[in-house]
Design brief:
Blueprint lengths: L1 H12 L15 H9 L4 H17 L24 H14 L8 H12 L7
Length: 123
């Protein structure tokens, strides 16, 4: 149930129409990092990361399923990348950016993925 809730949250965070007021998770990135660092938290962490990545990928698709090829991508995770690798990169980024630990989890994790998976890099 927690996985589904986190997946839905990740998709909601990155859904189209963010110009309007949207609910943002009150969780801080530091709490998320602690969850991700524990083996018992890997499944919850990975579900959140997958949901966020899916949400960003799907945000380029309009309600009429037309998409917007000109919309900039927030980050570009290679198809073959594992969630273990994504989790490791996010945790490394958070350790290097301690100022992000008190920010909302969605903001910090999005930025971590943006910096770790630039779209300009060859896939």
């Amino acid at each position: 149930m927690k996985r589904l809730a986190l997946l839905c949250l990740g998709v909601a965070i990155c859904a189209p129409g963010l110009a309007q007021a949207q609910r943002v998770s009150p969780m801080k990135a530091g709490n998320f990092a602690r969850i991700c660092a524990r083996a018992t938290g890997h499944s919850v962490c990975d579900a959140y990361l997958s949901g966020l990545a899916d949400g960003v990928s799907l945000s380029k698709i309009s309600a009429r399923n037309e998409g917007d090829a000109n919309a900039p991508a927030g980050f570009c995770v290679p198809v073959q990348e594992t969630t273990d690798a994504m989790r490791a990169k996010v945790l490394t980024w958070l350790k290097a950016h301690t100022d992000a630990l008190n920010k909302p989890v969605g903001e910090s994790i999005f930025t971590a993925l943006h910096d770790s998976y630039p779209c300009s890099a060859k896939q």
